Amino acid sequence: MPALTRSSVEELCRKIGLKIVVKLKNGRSLRGKLAGFDEHLNLVLEEDEDITTPENVKFPSFSY
User: Fold this and answer.
1) What pTM did the predictor assign?
2) In angstroms, rounded to a whole number, what is the distance separating the alpha carbons of residues 15 and 34?
């Protein structure tokens, strides 16, 4: 995994409040407004929606 750099944190800060697409390891994709993140790069999305297409999912996931 690439190291977290100051410029990458600054880039994420510039994206707060903007719509982004997050691609997860299992192939799922979420689109939403970036509300924040922490030192571990856990992202907080608002107004998010799952935009995954079935052929992109690598393994089954569970809905809660």
Assistant:
1) 0.77
2) 7
